[in-house]
Design goal:
The structure holds 2 protein chains of 2 kinds. Chain A is α/β, with parallel strands linked by helices. Chain A has helices at residues 9-12, 42-54, 72-81, 105-119, 137-141, 157-170, 179-199, 204-208, 212-227, and strands spanning 30-34, 58-61, 85-89, 127-132, 150-152. In chain A, α4 (105-119) links the parallel β3 (85-89) and β4 (127-132). In chain A, α6 crosses α7 (179-199). A 6-stranded mixed beta sheet of chain B has the order 3-2-1-4-5-6, with helices on one face. The chains are: A alpha/beta, B mainly beta.
């Protein structure tokens, strides 16, 4: 049973036409984002979300809503079913220091997404991008991905923006702006974002810890006002 | 939607492939590309005509500082 009406992205946008879609948009326009949620990754998460929206698609991420009563696996399955695209960042599959566990969530969610693509007719057309901080490191702990085409961002925001943009273009999305424009617009967006939030009384800590839905609303509004 | 650029406005000093670029907000191409961030700020000041703002970014895109300029004369 469908939990939400299936609408095109433009129809599903909020009533003011410049906010995050109120209902999940069409799966064809939607990108499942599977990435770390730690503070060190925040700069990359920001540019990742912006790049997806700037290329005309809609990011779907577990943090897009908080529902404590909802099992995480249910949310994960819903996101995978409602997206044609998937971006998976395996940058945290190695512990940083002795005694620290490496993170299994990202490889697990990649596995579920790949499984959906391989075994579900509804997801057979799914496009999947795997990115990582360093080349080959993921193969040590996840040798099943040997010979898979994995893009490396080296924790560099500009590189990640351009890799995501290039992947959309290579996958058939024709109306994407050049990578240098996506990156320049992201910088301009961050400037406007900071000015607007400070005028509204937000402090640095508020901005750094802003909930993802609020941040997404701001990106949609900025892109609508400045790029459309 | 995706092919248009942001409206023309202030200058931004941003990292680009290991170098530093001066861009005008909304322009599709960088105005100048130089080796250092300080060099890019200087180039932006030289390009500024009339009252405008130079926004200097970190490599992650966040804002490091803002400089108000009027022509080549530094206000702040």
């Amino acid at each position: 049973m469908e939990r939400f009406p299936r609408e095109s992205a433009s129809v599903a946008r909020g009533s003011s036409a410049n906010q995050r879609p109120m209902h999940p948009p069409s799966p064809d326009d939607s990108v499942f984002i599977n990435c770390p949620f730690d503070p060190d990754y925040e700069p990359l998460l920001r540019v990742l979300l912006f790049s997806v929206i700037r290329c005309g698609l809609n990011p779907r991420i577990a943090r897009e809503r908080l529902e404590s009563g909802e099992p995480r696996i249910s949310k994960l399955v819903e996101l995978i079913q409602e997206t044609r695209w998937g971006i998976h960042d395996l940058s945290r599959i190695k512990a940083k220091k002795k005694g620290e566990f490496y993170r299994m969530n990202m490889p697990f969610e990649l596995g579920v997404d790949l499984g959906a693509k391989l075994f579900s007719k509804a997801c057979a057309n799914k496009k999947i991008l795997i990115v990582a901080q360093e080349p080959f490191r993921h193969q040590i702990g996840l040798s099943d991905l040997s010979n898979s085409d994995i893009r490396v961002h080296k924790s560099d925001a500009e590189t990640l923006a351009k890799e995501v943009r290039n992947w959309f273009r290579e996958s058939g999305v024709k109306s994407v702006p050049p990578g240098s424009v996506v990156w320049a617009d992201f910088n301009a967006f961050m400037s406007d974002f900071q000015i607007k939030r400070e005028k509204e009384g937000y402090k640095d800590a508020d901005i750094r810890k802003m909930p993802v839905p609020e941040f997404l609303d701001f990106i949609y509004r900025w892109v609508e006002e400045n790029c459309g | 939607m995706a092919t248009k650029t942001a409206s023309i406005g202030k200058f931004h000093v941003i990292s680009r492939a290991g170098q530093w670029a001066v861009t005008r907000q909304g322009a599709s191409r960088a105005s100048r590309i130089v080796e250092s961030r300080d060099g890019a700020v200087l180039a932006a000041k030289q390009m500024a005509l009339g009252k405008t703002e130079i926004v200097v970014h970190r490599t992650d895109g966040t804002v490091s500082k803002r400089i108000s300029v009027s022509g080549a004369r530094l206000i702040r």
